[in-house]
User: What shape does this take?
Amino acid sequence: MKYASTQAITRRGILMALVMMLSFSSFAQAPVADSLSTESESRYNNDIHSFILHRLGQEVKQREKMMNKTVQHYLINLPNAEKLYDETFVRINSSVQEDTTEDGRPEINYVYEIAYNCHHFEGTEDDYPSAAYLWNSSNSCRAICNITRNMIQDNLSDIFAAGTRIEVTITSTTDAAEISHIPYRGEYGDYRYMPAVYNEENVRISVNQKEGITTNAQLAYIRAQSVRDYLDNNVSAIKNGNTEYFFTTKCFDMTGPHYRRSSLRIVVHGAFDAQARQMEARLQDDEYVDFNIPAIEENSNSKTYALIIADEEYTAPLPNCDFASNDGEVLSEYFVRTLGLPARHVKVLHNAGRQEIKDNGIRWLKDIITAQKGDVHIILYYAGHGVSNAKFGPYLVPSGVDVSKIRAFRSKTGNLPENINLKKKDAEKILSQCISFDTLTGWFNRVEALSYTFIIDAGFDGIQRNGKPFFTIKKETKKARLPRVRSDIVIFMAANPDKTAYSFIDQHHGFFTYYILKELKYTRGEATFQELFENVTKNQAYESSLQGKLQEPVMVIGGKLGENWGNRTFINN
Assistant: This one.
């Protein structure tokens, strides 16, 4: 079976030749062929540069989501003496930052920020008591310090490599209460004319044990030093790094506990430099389906409509579904650019619940079919979690599923307990919020269209995309079977209902979605369904087996279609 059309191979060869002659200006220097115009060189360099920054940003945001979910669990399970006010929220923000080193070389940095805010100030007890300066005298500062330690150790150890240049900016504030004298016990030593920023001005601050604290500037500064002391003694990655501290202090012109706070901003210099260089080399080999998406004539596939459901974020304690959002975003680009669907013919629902899928997605498609008197081709795509019922019947698990009243999902840590096997009553509560294949296809009963194609990138065996346990429902039968569907529907499924559908971490996609996109890219959407399925099966099975998580897709074909399904294509002129 051919892997790609001659046209696609030729185009790919030209692109690779072009890209290999170009350089990612920030990280490599390579000669550019004289035949290339300066404008072309700049455009391709900018495309590569933008893609690398976008991909790194995706990785950072993926980690940010995971970390903030962990933060929620941490805050819920704090001891009563350390509990935060109900309206207090701790949030991690992270980003990729371009910069230059002191000798003018470009670098790509990682930025980590953590702070808290409160929706209602009255009666809060999270902030520093009026004259206190120790980090652990403020519940919120204690939480920020401990969360930062845990995040760096458990989620960011690869970014905080030993010897890395790190800048830590600690911001601490006071309210406007007048200070006469606060004893300073010298826990952090004496300071003489130390540089800091106070009320947005560069100042020098002195504090010593003998004279104590007599100004708000000193109090805010010592609060910041207390946080620094915690980081130095409890976060080995910061202690072992080439770390420099900066202190930003402020005195508000109002009084109240909510004006006495601390927050952190950490910059890891050059955190992504090596990765950027590796990505540039791989872009020259055209390895990323998210880059250089081929395009055909705009709006040329005007009879095709697509609904994309990308459910990545779930309510705790259910875990998120890694990369589902990116699956949906990139696939929508392929539908428009590579398959020629008009942009208005593609609808993307992110993190949609069952009712939203029905009201804003399925109804949209049905109205279109009715308006066009069935003269349309329909594509429905889903990326997210799945589960199978007692008889292995597959169900989609939409975002917003509420498991709070199910005892099996409760745990002391707040994380999803392992090996959850729900019995009948609990299973009914879950499945009533999910969407079975029978329901999904039944929504289109008596609604005739030229073709229906469903693409389902979800697993139903109780394992998440990342290989960790999800949950299962106690089975009444021992053998899984493929779902039955009405006679005019073709369903591409990522795996059998009793097999796992994994994510391709390196590519930021589900395995199944990645290889579908790869086929669409190299064939410019011209492959038949049979060619596409055979090539996806071959290449996905090979790569997933190398990674120790074999995954083979399956087809579910309506009875009326017989062998004709294989001749279908996504391009319907």
Observations:
- Residues 38-76 form the longest helix (39 residues).
- The longest strand covers residues 88-100.
- The radius of gyration is 28 Å.
